[in-house]
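Field: sequence (string)
Field: structure_tokens (string)

Example rows 1 and 2, in order.
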Amino acid sequence: MLSATKRRIIGRRMLQTIPVIVLSTFIVFGLLKLVPGDIAVTLAGENATDQRIAEIRQMYGLDQPFLVQYGEWLWKAVQGDLSKSLLSGEAVLTSIARCFPNTLLIVVMGLSIALMVGIPLGIAAASRPGSWLDGLVMSIASLGVAIPNFWLAMLLVAFFALGLNWLPATGSVPFGEDPGGALRHALLPAIALASGGVAEVSRQLRSSLVEILSSQQVRTLHAKGLSPSNILWRHGLKNVSVNLLTVISLLANRMLAATVVVEAVFAIPGMGGLIVNAAINRDFPVVQGVVFAMVLVVVLINLTADVLYSVLDPRIS
């Protein structure tokens, strides 16, 4: 259980996220207004009269001042009403609810792969600094950082999907209907996302562990007769847990952004594809709704990291 002081700290940080949400949505709302062209003219269609265009503006509140439009949108968004698509007429919240599980599955699988591969590589490199194993791990990490996600995604499709026919090349399956099929469809996109994550986790963990294992405290533990493996698992990893948590939270946020490209390669109906199609078709309510939802997800990830910081290191306030 968290102490009353820790709960107050977490509560204060939750309040601090409100300006972040407001500022993020305000910037996106403002940038969309700078897009050239008149959305009312587009919606009215060809050969529309001035009267019809004026009716469209009034119908969607496009004739209101910018701050009034933003205030009304934000007030409705807080209540769960993210407006409707200008093109399909579908509620934006419904579109997000349909697409977000696909994105979430890819990100969770990608993050899991990055940790399952990156952590052992980082530990192996740190346990033998300067050895051939350390050099191999760092080379792999450098390669993972250098390879673009979209290029790796296309290679995975060409080899595992089109060449070997082991995994599907495109599309997705709802996890609730077919968990196995959903995981098979998400595996290649997750690997494409995880490549940079493996490199980041292994490099950061290796650097932190080498610093800890070469400290005076660890040399004292060696002098007391503790085995290297005992020191590594009971003292080394415990001391780098906060740094590792920071890497994980940043990596999760980065993967959310990278899904825009990866989902396009694998034709996955996720949040990335939703916002790209909306931007191309100038469907502003969908763009604003997706950005609002993604900002909330990022804020939730950061809040979770703050809570875990307090659990892992009581000195953090």
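Row 2 begins here:
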Amino acid sequence: MTTLPLPLNFHERAKVLGSSTLYEASHLPCAVDSAIRPVWDGAFIAAPAYPLECSPGDNLALHLAMERVPRGSVLVVGTGSFIAGYWGEVLTVAAEAAGVVGLVIDGGVRDIAAMKKRQFPVFARGISVKGTVKVSAPSVGQPFNFNGAFVAQGDLVVADEDGVIILPKADAARTLAEGEARANKEALMMQALTEGRSTLELMNLTEWRTRA
């Protein structure tokens, strides 16, 4: 398994900017359903995607992925929004050994204390003690629409406390550059606010003073 290439300093730059700024800078429909949240505070992911789909209540595709996923990837897992314990401590240890750097899943997970202790970042729709079977694997490594954002292998995932976005790899470098320009502009605006100027003035909305 090889390590996928990233835009220059992608992880560090994405962490500074955050998912919200990058989403606005992308001008793309790349935001994932906001119900998919970090399972422990402070979790962060910025890495290439490895997509797969599980049948409801069946996590066989996850076990197959462990032998195929490129090191440095984040697993992006569709389950049809079925809440069960698809993922727990055993798969976390297996993922770390395989070089996986995080999990984004629209289903459920369990063994949260172990993930937090190991600092393995997981974003999920829910938490469930219920186990899963291992019977079918709809797709492993194939692209699909993940809860509002298309995902293919090598697309770039950014996940933090604001949410999850999936940037097409062809747009990642541009989005980073535009995100940094946006952040610099906002820094100047916040400095102006501390000096007494208003958001209406800075955003050219002063006409609303008399209209509202």
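free_text_note (row 2): The chain has one domain: 10-176.
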